[in-house]
Amino acid sequence: MQTTESICQALMKGRAAEVKLLVDQALQEGVPAVKILNDGLLQGMGIIGDKFKKNEVYVPEVLIAARAMKAGMEILKPKLVAAGVQPLATAVIGTVKGDLHDIGKNLVGMMLEGAGLKVVDAGIDVAPEKFVQLAKDNQAQVIGVSALLTTTMTNMKLVVEAVKAAGLTTKVMVGGAPVTQAFCDEIGAHGYAADAASAADLAKKLLK
Ligand code: B1M
């Protein structure tokens, strides 16, 4: 088995220490950093994302896979930077104003990173102006807004309006338990995803 395939397998099992060792081994073998990223780490995270969508794995498996990816990235990141590899795009994510739930939002962030995006996490209870400011500061192509409460999801509309008012072309995607495609359409957001793995697919689609 190629080392990148072993990295993919170890990541899917959430074996962070093994992923670290294998990434190091692949680098020693002269495998290019970008190949290790694409065929090892991102491949593994992509498979976990698909399994998550099909309910073949659940939140804990995604969390430990993401932790393993992070461990591999610690070794790989300096090599990628040295090789001039750029992230696919930048996404600012956060939970909408008034809302303190962040477990789903964090999962979305992990899946976006797993899809090759740089993620700027604005945190929870994020005001529309803060989303806009961070999008500007980081030249983000995507803003991801999460809401878990029927009382706070309405604040997503304010984010869409603030982005428009600032003249940004940044795409706004929304999600969270009470959010639906119909609500997304109603507030004029660019896209809705039902789960974290679909959010990563959606972000890539919105970038095209
Ligand atoms: Co809260 N809470 N909570 N809570 N809480 C819910 C959401 C609730 C449904 C519970 C219930 O009554 N059955 C209910 C909302 C009712 C409603 O509005 N319809 C509720 C309530 C009422 C409240 C408080 C008002 C309670 C109170 O104080 N009286 C309060 C509000 C505080 C505030 O935010 N201002 C409150 C507080 C809390 C805690 C702080 C205790 C805690 C949050 C801890 C934390 O997040 N760090 C909490 C929790 C844990 C929950 C439940 C139990 C679990 C939420 C969760 O993390 N789910 C929840 C009940 C439930 O869902 N069973 C509940 C797991 C997570 C992985 O799923 O976040 O849906 P989820 O994310 C999914 C998708 O939605 C999607 O991807 C994820 C998975 O792939 N997704 C996106 C999420 N964001 C996305 C963004 C995207 C795309 C997809 O694109 C950008």
Task: Compose a concise summary of this entry.
This protein is of the alpha/beta class. It has helices at 3-12, 16-28, 33-53, 59-82, 103-114, 128-137, 155-165, 181-187, 196-207, and strands at residues 90-95, 118-121, 142-146, 171-175, 191-192.
Strands, helices and their partners?
Blueprint: H1 3-12, H2 16-28, H3 33-53, H4 59-82, E1 90-95, H5 103-114, E2 118-121, H6 128-137, E3 142-146, H7 155-165, E4 171-175, H8 181-187, E5 191-192, H9 196-207
Parallel strand pairs: 1-2, 1-3, 3-4, 4-5
The structure holds CO-5-methoxybenzimidazolylcobamide.
The site of CO-5-methoxybenzimidazolylcobamide (B1M) has 28 residues, from helix 5, strand 3, strand 4 and helix 9.
Structure report:
This protein has 208 residues and is an alpha/beta fold. It is 58% helix and 11% strand. The protein has nine helices and five strands. Helix 8 links the parallel strand 4 and strand 5. Helix 4 crosses helix 5. The site of CO-5-methoxybenzimidazolylcobamide has 28 residues, from helix 5, strand 3, strand 4 and helix 9.
